[in-house]
Every structure is written in structure tokens, then in C-alpha cells.
Amino acid sequence: xxxxxxxxEEKKDRKEKDKTRRDKLAGFFxxxxxxxxxxxxxxxxxxxxxxxGGSLQEIAKTLFGLAATLVLSTIANNILK
Length: 81
Hints:
By secondary structure, the chain is mainly alpha-helical. It has helices at about 1-50, 55-80.
């Protein structure tokens, strides 16, 4: 009986470690998404508003930042499922 309970405990420990690992990895991707949004999207929108002309480069940065944010948050969401 002792060997069986030991195997069950090891299985529970593995499941808990896997859950923690998934949570931390998803948190990492969510943090990357937040950084992309803050750095690229908000930063380029501020620069776009300060330059009264609004260059194509700033629009491209904004679109790239939005795409990167969406992709990274989708990856994090899929990891948590």
C-alpha cells in the first residue's frame, strides 16, 4: 500500500508543478503583450500626436504593436486552456 500512495503523491506533485509552470509561462506572455502595447502602441501614438504630420513609420509601429499584443495575448490564453 505504501508504494501506491507514494505514486499518487508523485503524480499530484507533477500535476501541481505543471500547473505552476503553465501559469508562470502564460504570465510571461501576458507581460510581453503589455510591454508591446505600452512600448509600441502607446509610444507611437504619443509620437504621432506630437508630430503634427504623422509619419507612415509611426502608423506602422502602431499596427505592429497591436498585432504583437494580440498574438502574444492569444498565446498566453492558449497556454492557460
